[in-house]
Design brief:
Blueprint (H helix, E strand, L loop, with lengths): L6 E3 L20 E9 L10 E6 L5 E5 L5 E7 L2 E9 L2 E10 L12 E8 L3 E3 L16 H14 L5 E6 L6 H21 L7 E7 L10 H7 L1 E6 L1
């Protein structure tokens, strides 16, 4: 279930490498890869996890960008890698990198240079965060999703968020507003219990005032009953 949707735009990926014959028994059979991640204004993005997934083995290699939006990694040659940027409980496919196989005493001397540019979302829905009917008590399947949100906030330790509680139109507006606030408070309390700074998280109940679907159907009402995260 997708929880965060990253809006990614493709820019040219420059992959430069050269092979050189060497007479050495310990010849590296992998390739150096330099990665740079920026926003659309070319500002470096720190604490972004970039994933390289092997098409041959499905093995994943990850790197975390530093304050300059960069990191380096080595990847086995003779494979094709799907590149994605890890979002909240989701990886959005971005591009592919092909590293040709090496033969003989050849090795990769010049790194592959990968430049990624993307726009992080400002709001996303916490799918699978559910409550008991008419109550603010979390159901058990909500805990793994909230734990992932805790991990995300620990990685993005400079971000502040708003938790927005939303309901369908069943019941009175007053009761729905109260219920939505209590549910948002419950999620906030869970994050604080896990060590998130209280000053980073606010909780707001919106009741039935901001539907995203038609309340005339059960499917639509289910979509309207949601907890949203807004990056402040």
């Amino acid at each position: 279930m997708k929880i965060i949707y990253l809006l990614l735009f493709l820019i040219p990926v420059f992959a430069k490498a050269q092979t050189s014959p060497v007479q050495n028994a310990a010849i590296p059979k992998d390739a150096p890869v330099n990665v740079s991640v920026t926003d659309f204004k070319k500002n470096p993005l720190s604490n972004e996890i970039v994933v390289f997934k092997s098409k041959m083995s499905a093995k994943e290699y990850q790197g975390l960008t530093n304050d300059g939006g960069k990191f380096s990694v080595r990847l086995p040659a003779g494979d094709i890698y799907d590149i994605s940027i890890l979002g909240f409980n989701d990886s959005t496919s971005y591009n592919v990198l092909k590293i040709p196989a090496l033969t003989g005493n050849a090795y990769y001397k010049t790194p592959f240079d990968i430049s990624l540019e993307f726009l992080a979302p400002k709001t996303f829905v916490l799918d699978d965060v559910n409550f008991e009917t008419g109550k603010a008590a979390l159901e058990e399947e909500s805990f793994p999703v909230l734990d992932e949100l805790v991990a995300y906030l620990n990685r993005k330790d400079d971000e502040r968020i708003e938790l927005g509680g939303h309901t369908d139109n069943v019941g009175t507006p007053v009761n729905n507003l109260k219920l939505s606030q209590e549910r948002a408070n419950t999620v906030r309390a869970y994050l604080l219990m896990k060590g998130i700074d209280p000053g980073r998280v606010t909780a707001v109940g919106y009741g039935l005032s901001q539907p995203v679907s038609d309340n005339k159907t059960e499917e639509g009402r289910a979509q309207n009953r949601r907890t949203e995260v807004k990056i402040l």
